[in-house]
C-alpha cells in the first residue's frame, strides 16, 4: 500500500475495483446494525406505551379517536399476536416470555451471520419487538396494545409498536430473501 491508498495494488494488467465500488463500501456489521435496531424498537415500544397508558389514558371502552380510521384504545392482551392463544393461567406470561427469550436467542444467532443490511435490520425489528412485548408480559402479565385501526365497521385487532415492528421485520425478511442479492 502506497500513497495512503487503503487498498492493496491489484496485480499488473488488472484494473482493480472502480472508485466507489463494492471494495470501497464499508463492511456491514450485522450484529451491531441488528442490535441497534432492536434497541430502538424496544425503547420506542415502551415509550409509546407509557405515553398512551399513563399520559393519555384512553378509556378502556371506546377509545380516543385520532382520525376517522385510527383510535387509541386501552387493551391488555394476555395472548400472542392479535389476542390469539389467550389464557387465564397465571403461568402464561412466564411461558410466553420463555418462548420469546428462546426466539430472541435464535434470531440473535442468525443475526451474527446476516449477509445484508436489510436482513440485519429485519432481524433487529423482530428481536426488538419480541423484547418489547416480553417486558410487558413480565411487568404487567399481559401485552399493552393501543393502536386500533378501523374502517366502515371493521376493526383490525389492536396492536402496538412492537407488533408493527415484528410485522414489518417479517416482510423485510421475505423481501430480502426474494430480491436482495447476496454476497
TrEMBL record:
Membrane disposition: Multi-pass membrane protein
Sequence ranges of Pro residues compositional bias: 13-24
Keyword Transmembrane helix: yes
Catalytic activity: Release of signal peptides from bacterial membrane prolipoproteins. Hydrolyzes -Xaa-Yaa-Zaa-|-(S,diacylglyceryl)Cys-, in which Xaa is hydrophobic (preferably Leu), and Yaa (Ala or Ser) and Zaa (Gly or Ala) have small, neutral side chains
Transmembrane regions listed in the UniProt entry: 91-111, 118-135, 155-180
Gene Ontology cellular-component annotations: plasma membrane
Record GO terms (molecular function): aspartic-type endopeptidase activity
UniProt keywords, alphabetically: Aspartyl protease, Cell membrane, Hydrolase, Membrane, Protease, Transmembrane, Transmembrane helix
Pathway involvement of the protein, from the record: Protein modification; lipoprotein biosynthesis (signal peptide cleavage)
Localization, UniProt: Cell membrane
InterPro entries: Peptidase_A8
Source organism superkingdom: Bacteria
Swiss-Prot/TrEMBL GO biological process terms: proteolysis
EC number: 3.4.23.36
PROSITE patterns: SPASE_II
Active-site residues, as the UniProt record annotates them: 145, 163
Spans annotated as Disordered: 1-24
Cited function: This protein specifically catalyzes the removal of signal peptides from prolipoproteins.
Family that this chain belongs to: Belongs to the peptidase A8 family.
HAMAP family (UniProt xref): LspA
Full protein name: Lipoprotein signal peptidase
Biological source species: Roseospira visakhapatnamensis
Amino acid at each position: 500500500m502506497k500513497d495512503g491508498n487503503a487498498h492493496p495494488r491489484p496485480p499488473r494488467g488488472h484494473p482493480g475495483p472502480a472508485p466507489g465500488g463494492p471494495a470501497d463500501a464499508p463492511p456491514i456489521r450485522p450484529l451491531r446494525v441488528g442490535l441497534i435496531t432492536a434497541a430502538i424498537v424496544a425503547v420506542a415500544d415502551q415509550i409509546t406505551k407509557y405515553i398512551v397508558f399513563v399520559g393519555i389514558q384512553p378509556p378502556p371502552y371506546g377509545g380516543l379517536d385520532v382520525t376517522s380510521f385510527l383510535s387509541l384504545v386501552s387493551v391488555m392482551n394476555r395472548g400472542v399476536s392479535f389476542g390469539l392463544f389467550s389464557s387465564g393461567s397465571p403461568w402464561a406470561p412466564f411461558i410466553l416470555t420463555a418462548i420469546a427469550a428462546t426466539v430472541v436467542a435464535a434470531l440473535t444467532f442468525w443475526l451474527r451471520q446476516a449477509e445484508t443490511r436489510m436482513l440485519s435490520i429485519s432481524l433487529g425489528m423482530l428481536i426488538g419487538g419480541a423484547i418489547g412485548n416480553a417486558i410487558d408480559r413480565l411487568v404487567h402479565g399481559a401485552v399493552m396494545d393501543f393502536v386500533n385501526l378501523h374502517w366502515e365497521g371493521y376493526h383490525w385487532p389492536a396492536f402496538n409498536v412492537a407488533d408493527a415492528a415484528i410485522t414489518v421485520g417479517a416482510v423485510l425478511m421475505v423481501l430480502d430473501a426474494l430480491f436482495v442479492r447476496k454476497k
